[in-house]
Specification:
Layout (H helix, E strand, L loop, with lengths): L1 H17 L3 E11 L2 E9 L7 E6 L5 E7 L5 E7 L4 E4 L6 E7 L5 E7 L5 E7 L6 E4 L4 E6 L4 E6 L8 E6 L5 E6 L6 E2 L6 E5 L7 E6 L4 E7 L8 E4 L2 E5 L4 E5 L6 E3 L1 E2 L12 E3 L5 E7 L1
Parallel strand pairs: 2-23
Antiparallel strand pairs: 1-2, 1-25, 3-4, 4-5, 5-6, 7-8, 8-9, 9-10, 11-12, 12-13, 13-14, 15-16, 16-17, 17-18, 19-20, 20-21, 21-22, 24-25
Length: 291
């Protein structure tokens, strides 16, 4: 038993330190005559180690993100892009990832990684306070809220089973597996009650899929950029992805497929692009880049 516990602690430590350094760039965002333009990049994390997983508050000029400290533990920080100030939402002995404002805007939900190997879904009061554990029976990697009670989960697999997509009801505990071999990016499609995820298909291009929780149906939206599973939505018919070097937009209303966006300003820090997040008004975009 002691050997197992020490192995879990060692694995958790290695996992934390294996995260590569990253920064979050904030761009102004606009659409001009159908062309998506990013401009005025600003490094809003400007901090050694891992700064990642940005999420915009739905109505306030605040970005939540996960940030490592010198010991390799991740806390949740907030950045106000109006006042240009940064604060900690959490400073704990645990590791918090993937901050997400809940639909009622009263909490910030997140993945809580513990030293004993558990990886729970929990939530913190949006103005600070102790965590509430929501799900502790699954190893949750990522999540996206459907309603105040329903949530999509990326559940980590292991050597005997792949990663899987779950539709989970917090109130009743009902748990439905929708798909396996999925990507890490889960989103609600703006202006709808539908959700999207990336379906990875061995030997083929990945597919961006749409899940309708009311009809319990899954349909294909389009193909993803090769080898990519991170995306974000600009509006209900325009989605963005990156190939790691630049950004592309797919306007589903014109059937032109993936087209490069226009990026202006000092782009010297733009490399190794991964996660993307757009604010509710589609005037700002957070882009995660390699440190």
């Amino acid at each position: 038993m002691k050997k197992s516990i020490w192995f879990i602690l060692f694995a958790a430590c290695i996992s934390a330190k294996a995260q590569t350094g990253s920064e979050i760039l904030l761009f102004d965002l606009s659409v001009k005559k159908g062309t998506v333009v990013l401009s005025n990049p600003k490094n809003i994390s400007n901090h050694k180690w891992y700064d990642n997983q940005p999420f915009f508050h739905p109505s306030k000029p605040i970005i939540y993100y996960a940030s490592f400290d010198d010991s390799g533990r991740s806390n949740i920080k907030t950045y106000n892009h109006k006042t240009q100030t940064t604060y900690y939402l959490t400073v704990t002995k645990e590791r918090e990832y993937s901050p997400t404002v809940t639909p009622d805007a009263a909490f910030v939900s997140c993945i809580i990684q513990r030293d004993n190997g558990e990886q729970n879904l929990g939530k913190y009061p949006i103005n600070g306070g102790e965590a509430y554990v929501l799900i502790n029976k699954l190893i949750v990697g990522y999540h996206a809220w459907v309603t105040n009670e329903e949530v999509l989960l990326f559940v980590l697999g292991d050597s005997s089973k792949p990663n899987s997509l779950h539709f989970y009801n917090i109130k009743t505990g009902a748990d439905t597996i929708l798909a396996t071999n999925i990507g890490r990016s889960l989103h609600q499609i703006p202006g709808t009650k539908q959700m999207c995820f990336v379906q990875q298909v061995q030997g083929q291009e990945s597919l961006i899929q749409k899940f309708d929780p009311q009809l319990s149906t899954i349909t294909t939206i389009c193909t993803a950029l090769p080898g990519q599973d991170h995306l974000t939505w600009l509006n209900e018919h325009m989605l963005l992805q990156s190939d790691g070097k630049t950004l592309f937009v797919n306007d589903l209303s014109d059937n032109k497929g993936w087209q490069p966006v226009v990026m202006k300003g000092n782009l010297s820090l733009v490399k190794g692009i991964t996660r993307l997040a757009v604010n509710r008004k589609s005037t700002k975009i957070a882009v995660v880049v390699s440190e």
